[in-house]
Amino acid sequence: MGEKRTPVLRAESVYRALRRAIIEQALKPGMKLPEDSIGEQLGVSRTLVREAFGRLAVEGLVELKPNRGASVAYPTLEEARDVFEVRRGLERLVAESLAGRITPAQVAELEAHVHQEEKAHEQDGPESIRLSGEFHIKLANMTGNALLLRYVQEASSRCSLILAIYGRPHSSECAVSEHRQLIDALRAGDAARAADLMDHHLRAVVTRALLTPRVERDIRDVLAPYALSEGLTPS
Amino acid sequence: MGEKRTPVLRAESVYRALRRAIIEQALKPGMKLPEDSIGEQLGVSRTLVREAFGRLAVEGLVELKPNRGASVAYPTLEEARDVFEVRRGLERLVAESLAGRITPAQVAELEAHVHQEEKAHEQDGPESIRLSGEFHIKLANMTGNALLLRYVQEASSRCSLILAIYGRPHSSECAVSEHRQLIDALRAGDAARAADLMDHHLRAVVTRALLTPRVERDIRDVLAPYALSEGLTPS
DNA sequence: CGTTCCAATATCGTATGCAAGTATGTCGAA
DNA sequence: TTCGACATACTTGCATACGATATTGGAACG
């Protein structure tokens, strides 16, 4: 069985694997990412793992400290707010550029999606979370603006990280009713209202989910303030 | 003179060098980027060049085709519009979050900057272009939102590429007067007006600078229409 | 008993090597 | 003369190798 190994670049596969693992929180924020063990696990050399790290670092999913290796990014609360703010700006643009220009077929697709969300919401599984996220990706995708889609995806990924750290256990983040309202505004072609709805929707997500500070991950950072308050001198 | 060899990672230096070279159009859009000649030129191995390519690809400054290497990105006209649209959304956010919260010191800095722009505008050197760009970066920086800054920088870089391809020779892209108005609105704390000014300003940049389709870079794309019109069949 | 220094170990940063894939040039057959 | 198959040179994809840097566990010393 000459299993054709990989028709396409394995570097890409590594990148995607790590990306998914981080987003799905199999790799938790702050977790150390040694090149060797990861490469071994994925069946590739450090070279490819390293390449993937570089790209993930640009996207803000991985932190890269010189000579100290990579770890899953652990955004500060401040960075978290930054991400949500940018995301709001981006998605408002999504809403505006979609309003009125959305096709009936697209509306139908969105409504089907929301319907799924409602069903998943009852059982309150992890499905609910995934679906809420996908709704926003779907919207971004419908704009036909590839860059906008990329940025929304990126922001969305980072939000996963952020919610893993600062989010309350599993309050499903998006209110389905808000999704429905948004669809209505888009179909009606009311750009201003759609943008406002999106804006409020995302603000609501922040206040609903993002309030509880959790543990810190790097011992140094945790202890630095204590050291100072005790007059100790961090080397 | 024990010249300390590498103060910081050389990979980073390679990345920055290439980035600058692309933005300053020393490396022109579409130009092929062979790993070994570039590595040789910069005094590093292909490994580092390759790593830099990966990161630049994420940022959209280089295109990476499997087994065919890297080249400086050559955005299509459609991608160009996408970039400008996203940039508008981002910078509107900049304007909004800065309005009213901007400090007198920051206003002073911006005014000094605009003054420089005016002086440079008279002599109409390449300085003029650089300064216009920096004005927007400065604004983004003042928001204190690191992610927003990163995205604006990225969008800005890509705009350089785009103007290199589709821009008219050297119409300085930004009208200085528009910058002044914007500063006024920011100081007055009129968020809506600031956002609108920014929006119009960037729309104006597009219509001023971005109209002339130029040459295509990939021979295939250039010739495809000719082939069709002659009844030839592109393999 | 606590502190300093040093070796051992685990990683990282980078260069190089080899296999595989792509482009190009040549030559023979139709 | 045109087309296509093969051969060659070049480039990329990936792994491995080796020196450099950080971290850990003592041992020596105060």
Pick out its properties:
homodimer, DNA-binding, Arc Repressor Mutant, subunit A, Four Helix Bundle (Hemerythrin (Met), subunit A), 3 strands, disordered N terminus, three-stranded antiparallel beta sheet, 2 domains, 10 helices, globular, 235 residues
Plain-language structure description:
- The structure is a homodimer of 235-residue chains.
- The N terminus of chain A is likely disordered.
- Chain A starts with 9 loop residues before the first helix and ends in a 6-residue tail after the last helix.
- In chain A, a hairpin with a 3-residue loop joins strand 2 and strand 3.
- The longest helix of chain A has 22 residues.
- The first copy, chain A, is mostly helical.
- In chain A, 67% of the residues lie in helices and 4% in strands.
- Chain A folds into two domains: 65 residues, Arc Repressor Mutant, subunit A (Orthogonal Bundle), CATH 1.10.10.10; 133 residues, GntR ligand-binding domain-like (Four Helix Bundle (Hemerythrin (Met), subunit A), Up-down Bundle).
- Chain A is globular, with a radius of gyration of 20 Å.
- In chain A, strands 1-3-2 form a three-stranded antiparallel beta sheet.
- Chain A contains ten helices and three strands; from the N terminus they run H-E-H-H-E-E-H-H-H-H-H-H-H.
- At the A-B interface, helix 3, helix 4 and helix 7 of A face helix 3, helix 4 and helix 7 of B.
